[in-house]
Design brief:
CATH architecture: 2-Layer Sandwich
Distance between the termini: 36 Å
CATH class: Alpha Beta
Number of domains: 1
Helix content: 10-25%
Order of helices and strands: HHEEEHEEE
Strand content: 25-35%
Shape: globular
Structural class: alpha+beta
Number of strands: 6
Radius of gyration: 17 Å
Mean pLDDT: 83
Largest sheet: 6 strands, mixed
CATH topology: STM4215-like
Length: 157
C-alpha cells in the first residue's frame, strides 16, 4: 500500500466499486464476475474521455485531488474525490421499471456506497451531484465527495 493519499483513495474507491454487484450490473450485466478485469475497460483511475464509438458502453472515472498540505500533517488528509458515471446515450435507458437513467442509478449506488465512508481519520461527505455531458453522445453524472477532517482537541481542554 502507498502513503500517497491520491493513490490510496483511488485504490479504495475502485476496490469498493468492483465489489458492488449493483454497480457492476448497471455498467455491464455480463461482467458481474469480472472484478479487476473491469479496471481500464469500464473503470478508470483518471478522467478518461470515451471515444465516439458505435458500441454503447458505460464507464466510471475516478479523480482525486489533495486540498491541503498532507506532507506536514500526516494525521489529516483533506482530499476531494470526483466520480463520473458516463454512458453512451443509447445506453441511458435501464428498462427495469424504476424510471431512472443508467447514470442516475449508478450515482445513487455510489452515493450509498461512499456517503460518510471513513478514509483514514476522515469521512467522505457528498458535496455535489450533477448531470452534464462529456460530449454529444456521452451524458454523465458527476459526484464530488470531500473528506471531513477531525480536529483533535488538546488534552484537558
Amino acid at each position: 500500500m502507498t502513503n500517497d493519499p491520491v493513490i490510496e483513495l483511488k485504490q479504495l474507491v475502485i476496490s469498493d466499486i468492483i465489489n458492488t454487484p449493483g454497480i457492476i450490473e448497471l455498467i455491464d450485466p455480463s461482467k458481474i464476475e469480472a472484478g479487476e478485469e473491469l479496471i481500464y475497460e469500464h473503470i478508470y483511475p483518471f478522467n478518461r474521455v470515451p471515444p465516439i464509438e458505435e458500441e454503447a458502453k458505460t464507464y466510471i472515472t475516478i479523480k482525486a485531488d489533495v486540498l491541503s498540505n498532507y506532507m506536514t500533517n500526516q494525521l489529516f488528509k483533506d482530499c476531494n474525490i470526483v466520480v463520473r458515471a458516463i454512458t453512451h446515450q443509447d445506453n441511458m435507458r435501464v428498462g427495469d421499471g424504476r424510471g431512472a437513467t443508467r447514470i442516475d442509478l449508478i450515482g445513487e449506488e455510489i452515493v450509498k456506497l461512499f456517503a460518510r465512508k471513513t478514509f483514514g481519520v476522515s469521512r467522505l461527505e457528498l458535496l455535489s451531484s450533477f448531470e452534464t455531458a462529456v460530449d454529444y453522445k456521452h451524458p454523465c453524472r458527476v459526484l464530488t465527495f470531500q473528506t471531513q477532517h477531525v480536529k483533535e482537541r488538546s488534552c484537558g481542554r
